[in-house]
Design brief:
The chain is mainly α and 141 residues long. It has a three-stranded mixed beta sheet with strand order 1-2-3. The mean pLDDT is 92.
């Protein structure tokens, strides 16, 4: 099974700590996060537009999955990582590319439009990866 991920979710997953747009969204992201954490050899396909995480975006919140600004966000991150749409790779390869191409402070420019940036979790996630560590266990709910 290949996990389909859009550009910005490659970095969002590094900072995921259980918060999300809804309980269903967070539960789905937890499943994907834990799979990637436990199985770094998991296959990931880079997609343009909504992905496996967007699939559980709450219907009662204004959707942004098709917004131009989100697509631009994806483009910035894919360019920084040197990835393109349609690429299929291992999650461990994504982590290695983050280690070599991204510094924690990049979150401030790459993700300047993101509402979650102010929590500092994505910057912390990149820092963890840069230190040679792996995705940490999620906090107990």
């Amino acid at each position: 099974m290949t996990i389909q991920l859009r550009g910005h979710h490659l970095l969002c997953l590094l900072g995921f700590r259980g918060m999300g747009y809804s309980a269903d969204f967070s539960a789905n992201m937890t499943i994907v996060y834990n799979k990637l954490r436990d199985e770094p050899g998991s296959r990931v396909t880079i997609v343009k537009g909504p992905d496996d995480l967007c699939a559980c975006f709450p219907s009662d919140v204004e959707p942004h999955c098709h917004n131009v600004s989100v697509a631009q966000h994806d483009e910035r991150i894919l360019q920084k990582l040197g990835f393109d749409y349609g690429m299929e790779l291992l999650w461990s390869d994504v982590i290695e590319r983050v280690r070599t191409n991204v510094v924690p402070e990049d979150i401030n420019t790459l993700c300047y439009t993101c509402q979650w940036r102010s929590y500092g979790v994505c910057e912390a996630g990149v820092r963890i990866i840069k230190q040679g560590e792996w995705l940490p266990p999620l906090p107990s709910q």
